[in-house]
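Table S4 entry, Choline transport protein.
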Amino acid sequence: MVWAFARDSDNVVWKYFAHIDVEKGIPVRAMLVSAAFCALYGLLYFASSTAFNSIVTSATIYLNLTYVIPQTILLFRGRSLLPTRVLSLGPLGWFCNAFSLFAVSAVSILLCFPPIIPVEVSSMNYTSVVIFGLAAIVMILWFTTGKSFRGPDVDVEAIEALAAAGLVGRGRKFSGVEWRAPKED
């Protein structure tokens, strides 16, 4: 992620971490920053297990939200907007989406409860604080820098050449099974 942020940023400091090592062919600087962050984050457990658990629980909730957002969109907008596909669950798909929305909502609420009773400052679950704090930071960044974000540079001609050579896209074999995307009109 560090490398992706560095690659897409116009900031000079971030560009330093976007460098790809010529000899190894990998973003060594970004990997070292990620490793250092993980090591420091692991040390947080020794300082405060409450803070560590709050961050881990918040990450779990946010990860679950990334799974349930597309399912919720399908649940409320319907599947008619999707292209035809090889596998269709029919009415069972609607049930799966509804169950996922319910399950993620219930688990997210339960993960915000304190782990023990009586609740004290040292045993409080600060997950909701972390979630709303991060949401506030994301909203601020969205409204302040969101309009200037360009996204990654994509070489469409190279992707089309790879697709024409059969290296990506239709007919590519994954784990010995040939996968074919639905034909486009």
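Residues 1-47 form one domain.
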